[in-house]
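Listing S7. Sequence submitted for prediction.
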Amino acid sequence: MRILITNDDGINAPGLEVLTEIAQGLAGPEGEVWTVAPAFEQSGVGHCISYTHPMMIAKLGHRRYAAEGSPADCVLAALYDVLQGAKPDLVLSGVNRGNNAAENTLYSGTIGGAMEAALQGIPAIALSQFLGPETADLADPFEAARVHGPAVVRSLVDAGLWQREADYKLFYNVNFPPLPASRVKGVKVGPQGFRRDTAFSVEPHHSPSGRKFLWIKGGPQHTPTLPGSDAALNLSGYISVTPMRADLTAHDMLTELEARLA
């Protein structure tokens, strides 16, 4: 099996080391694991691509590259330059430092990398490690992902729904709970949630020269979502698995909207 891995935390991120372990175990001794990841952190860039300017790419080692672009850029660079058209069997994106559940999903470069792979017709899984008070003092904050990630990825590869003939193919968003590995209760499938009464915002600060700068500020991450949805499952101790696709159409509204506009 040939596996491509990427992330949005950057080529030197500890979560990428965890993902490398997961990918190597899945690929086996006869397989290949290729890494094309951002040279610098790209958190929050979503599915952005560097459409208006070129990006530099550098080989750092055997099957290991860094690109000055987004995770989606890295997938494109891998498919059409690094791998010379020899498509991978699977793309893994992560393991992100922090959750990509609920509305975070829409901003996530980790998700963006997996989405680009799906648009290119390749099975893809995004993986993120929810962090919190119970992971703060762990020697390895990614413990839950490191221990349980291989089995989750293997089960999705072997038994997941991939809809290979669909135009907008499925990809998967996996979030590991903010707990030690021994306290993870299991795996549950759930929809993307929504954290009510909280949102991203900006916080103004002034530099020593008096100029105003705005920092993007996230909302509380431990706000519950509806029961059974991704963040709620994570906060209850479960690994959440959410099937996704890039089609943004609100299909449930088409018939009623057509009737109203007739």
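Caption to Listing S7: primary sequence and predicted structure tokens for the chain studied. The radius of gyration is 19 Å. The chain has one domain: 2-194+224-261.
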